Every structure is written in C-alpha cells, then in structure tokens.
Write the structure tokens for this entry.
Amino acid sequence: MRLIAVGGSDAGISAALRARELDPSGEVSVVLADGYPNFSICGIPYFVSGEVGHWRDLAHRTMEDLRGAGLDVHVNTRAAGIDVPGRRLIIDAPEGRRELPYDALVVGTGAVPVRPPITGLDRLGPAEGVHLLHTIGDTLTLTADLDATRPTRALIVGAGYVGLEMAEGLTARGIDVIQVEALPEALPEVLPTVDPDLGAMVRDELTRHGVQVHTATTVTEVAASDGPSRLTVHATGADAQPTRWDVDLVLVVVGVRPDTELLVSAGATTGPRGAVRVQPDMSTGLPGVWAAGDCVVTHHRLLGTTYLPLGTTAHKQGRVAGENALGGAAVYPGSLGTQVVKVFDLVVARTGLRDREAIEAGFASATVRSTGDDHKAYYPGAKPVTIRVTGDTATGRLLGAQLVGPLGAEIAKRVDIYATALTHEMTVADVDGLDLSYTPPLGSPWDVVQTATMAWVREHDLDRQRAALTSRRTA
C-alpha cells in the first residue's frame, strides 16, 4: 500500500501517522512545500513574545521522530498536480519535476492568509516592515526583523484570535501596539467570534495593557514613510473621518482562506468559503483521494456543512482520512467550533452557537448571561467567570456557551464541559445533573458552569418544567 499525504502540518501528518499505525508495512510519504514539518502554528505568538525559547520547540515532532515512525518526508517539495486516473502525484522537488505513484492520496494543503484590499500591500513586504503571519517561515522573517530594527510602534490589522495573541506578544517585547478591526458598528468589538459584551471585556483587557484599540476602522493604505518611522498607515473610522499612524512595523492577520488549487484543478467541487467538499469519511469524490484540514469544509454538529478552520479539527479529520485511505470506515463526528484564547490575563472561550447564529440556523434561540465565582468565595482568590448560555426555548436543548474569566479560572476546561454536553445533545437543564468535582479551593457544589445553565432554565424553561410537573400530578 502506497499512501501519500500532501501537507506536513496537522491534517497531513495525522493522516500519515494513522496510516502507519494501522499498516506498519505500508509505504507512507509526506510532501511538504517548506522545510518545517509538523510545527505548531498555534504556538507562533508565544515564540514571538519570547515565552517559547526557540522556534524548534514549536515542533510537535522532530524530523527524526517522523522518520522513526516510518514516514518518508519530502521537504521543500510542492505538489503541482494530481493525475487522478493514473494515481500519480506530480511534484516540483529541489531536483526538478517528477511523479510519485500512489494507491491512496490524502490532501491537507491547509489555508493561506487573506490579503485585504489595502493600497500598498502588494508593493511592500518584510524588508519594509510589512508582514503577513501564517507559517514558520513567516515567523522567522518577522522575528529577524524585530531583532534587527528594534521597532517601538507596531500596528496590527485584525483583532481575531491570532491578532489578539500577537498584540500580547509584541507588547511583551516592549513594543507599543495599535490594533485595528474593520468589522462594522453592528459588531463593534474585538474578537467578533463572541458576543459584543464579552468582546468589550477583551477590549478593556487590551487597553489595560497599553494596546490602542480601534474598531469599525478600515486600513486603506500602507506606505513607506519619509519620517523617522518606517511606515505610514492610513485608515477610515466609523465616522468616515481619515486617520493616520506612523509606525515601524505592520502585521496583517485578518484570517485565512482554503488552499484548494491542487484539488480543484483535479476536479474536486467546493462549498462554503470555497473550501473543498468532503463527506464525513473525508472522501472528495475523486477516486482514491481524501482531504482534510483547513482546505476542506467542516461538518458541524449544529449547522451542517460550513467552513471552520481549526487545528483541533484538522488533527481529527486527518486521522479519519488516513484510516479510510487504507480501506477503513471511520467517520469525522463533526465540529462544534470549540475555541479558547488567552489575552494577557484574560481567557475567552466559546463552543456551539451564539444567539444570532442559532436563529439563522432555524432554532428558537435565547441567551442568558450570568456571572459566578470559579470557586467558593470564602476560600481566598475567587475569580469571577462570566458565561453566556444559549439554548432552544422550544426544546430546552443546549446550543452553545461563551465564557470569559481571568487566567487561572479554568475557562478552557469549563468550556469543554459544555462541548461534551453539546456532543451528546443534552438539554440546558441536563447540565445541572452532571456529577462535577468539588472542593472549595477549586469549585463549588454547583459549579459556575451549572449556575449559568440554571439561570437560563429559570428564564426560559421553568414554565415548561412546571407544566410537566402539573401534568404528572393530574395524570
């Protein structure tokens, strides 16, 4: 059995390792466009900040680990085409173009950074202090620039997960940071993947640490400066008034789009956001070709087919694709969009749907916000956790949750409780019955996760529960 995985990040490596695990005698190759196999892209901000000491520490596995697992890794090799009938992958390797025969192919080409329509962005690059950040190569170029030029002021275009993490990372290096988010006044806060009132808490945390935040503001031009700063940035604010900043460095992190050229040119079809359509078994519809990760659509447990590029999803999809490429019958069970981010001393997490998303999906949705302590208040150090619970008022089904709290309040693990409940299609009220751990320094008899669902039930499900009780009494 000859299996080739295209892409050396989460999906490709997971597929290749799963294939070797199930068939140690098989020939498994990985084709990687750069020289950095199996590195944690999610860890980049912490290398930039200095918290991770060396970029090699970001490797999930070393090249020696991968080769020790039986993988034949082709670095600096670009997949240029797929001969689907002939089952051959066309590659551009350092020694020239050639073909690799395969019995099964898994494509995990991932995503590429979105380049917003900013005048000057096509002319200026790292040499001038303008950076897009997505790969280890991008990271090494950025850190080399930081070390060489010692910038004092930087502007970040984008206030999503990576933008916020990079604001913290650059601040940790002593750089004054300006953060600009273009989304309109209808979504007036940073981190637009959570509701605006929680985004406002994140903005406050950024401001507390010296970051200048500008929302509903569109960067229109980046130009080389003739003054002491390297760059001049022009923008338009919500009031349509022009704004200008002189900075030493510009970082553009406004999201990604799926890298689908290889699959589409071979005949694959696309869906939401232009991502390649795959079945839950990660098959593409092309004979002998599977795909996984940020280049493909996401099967969402509550929304159906969507696009949601996440590292956790890519790992799971890759494992399914690698098994099925050998003839297995694995199925990707679906995503909930569970995410968490640390912004200085604050942690924000979400899973499932927000109110607006749920309504658009056809649910009778309602959301209730509540705040409680992460452990018993009489034990020193109790921290407030704010939670927004979303449920279906027609059925009582849990639809989603958003959490914000200080670092140390176990926000990541608490959102995982909601993710587990969503996976098993529990009602909001069902969460109350979960047998969660308790000791005063770490929790409460009713954890804050449960007091939040109780608040939702009191507001939206109590009448139904009373009616059910009355019905039983009179039966």
